[in-house]
Amino acid sequence: MSHEIKSFLTSQGIATSRTTPYNPAGNGQIENYNGEIWKTIQLALRSNTNMKTEQWEGVIQTALHSIRSLLCIATNATPHERMFSHPQRSHNSCSIPTWLAKPVTGSCVFSLTCPLGSLGQN
């Protein structure tokens, strides 16, 4: 890793570590995050008139947007807000994808359409 990249990451408070190549178990934290991304993609595919898994590229941007928009209760901010100091908006000015949330009648509050525990179910 170049000195410039190390310097930038350090200035942003981002920690780095070296892992063994071709050994996913050596970096469990990122593998868990990759699993969360894949679960979100699968949910978006199923919610989008049962698209096939091969069509994952069509929903990746929406899936990543939804992950970056989830509120962390420890910091009371989304990952996007912590990085850029303002809320994230999609191309249609919606902060949460429609397949992830539905409006509660008579309110601006959104509720999840499925419990987070069901994201990994097939």
Automatic annotation (TrEMBL):
> Which branch of life, at top level?
Eukaryota
A molecular function (GO) term: nucleic acid binding
Q: Which InterPro entries does the record match to this protein?
A: Integrase_cat-core, RNaseH-like_sf, RNaseH_sf
Q: Which GO terms describe its biological process?
A: DNA integration
Which ranges carry the Integrase catalytic domain?
1-87
Entry protein name? Uncharacterized protein LOC103518217
Q: Name the source organism.
A: Trichonephila clavipes
